[in-house]
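[retry 2/3] Glucose-1-phosphate adenylyltransferase: previous attempt timed out, resubmitting with same input.
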Amino acid sequence: MLLAGGQGSRLGGLTRNRAKPAVSFCGKYRIIDFTLSNCTNSNINTVGVLIQYKPFLLNSYIGLGSAWDLDNPFGGVHILPPFLGETEGSWYNGTANAVYQNYEFIDYYDPEYVIILSGDHVYKMDYSLMLKFHKEKNAEITLAAIQVPREEASRFGILTIDSEDRVTKFTEKPANPESDLVSMGVYIFNGPTLKQALITDKADYLSQNDFGKNIIPNQLSTGKRVFAYKFQGYWRDVGTIESYYQANMESLKDGHFLNIFDPKFRIFSNEDIFPPHFVGSAAEIENSLICNGCTVHGKVSNSILGAGVYVGEGVEIKDSIILPYVKLHKGSSVYRTIIGENAEVMGNCSIGARGEFAPAYEGITVIEDYHLITEGTVIESGKHVYRSRAM
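[retry 2/3] Glucose-1-phosphate adenylyltransferase: success.
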């Protein structure tokens, strides 16, 4: 069950028109591509995608799941919106409520194990190895866990474990974390354990119906066998502008753990429909990802250009993420900036901190999807530019 309904308000203008899992990442991908590809690479053939906020674009993008080989006769990918009934509202009350509302779907397949996934994390993981661990431990619930810098730990659920990797305590986003081992938001449940946990949670009118805040702590309190599977690979929660920017920039580094070019563990995308990119004779490109369909006449360094981006003559782009179908016209400069999809920057604009001696601590500038920056506009570093209203 893939939770993909998040609004992602901390990503500001990048999510006013689309759900967070549908935001472009690393040029040609969407954030949700990583979780769907993990399912394919783990030989999972039945996936329920729980959508909610701005569902149309995400629904259209996933389609029948053929890009991820999930259009199969054994289950396939299923888009599951909130249930519109007399006893439920038209909105999920929390992550646990989202799965509860769709338990009819789970019952139809009657699985021995259910894996709960988030559609807004960037990582490559073989879930079959986690399931093997789950079985070896005779666990009822297994949580994927990873160590993060202590200063970031308060953003996540914190795990305390014993020498056998059994979870003894779980605290959701504490102000003062006891450890740096955090939950990745990936859970494996035995089928009956999940069903009973959701029924019990639904009956508790004080519950926030959330896996991290309610389900996991409550299951621990009743003595369930809950274990932590320690993941050793690359994983990023890209829920903030800073983490989103950093994760994109990290993909430009040599030997990066994510390695989107690894043929043994491919990341699939539904964006493989664009013509080759065109690089003009005056173009200069350094340490950058230039996706298909781009036209580049200017200078691009340490940046990512999504599909269909146009870069005019004399344009300079540095340390930036340009999402699909953006147009940048003659003479403009862009530094340490994220420009949303279909935005257009007219000629001779200056966006973000610029120059060889710009301080490293300058903020990240963000331009919302579809925004038009008029000719000669100067936008200071760290500013978030929105249109008057969302689409």
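[retry 2/3] Glucose-1-phosphate adenylyltransferase: The chain has two domains: 2-252, 278-385.
[retry 2/3] clearing retry counter.
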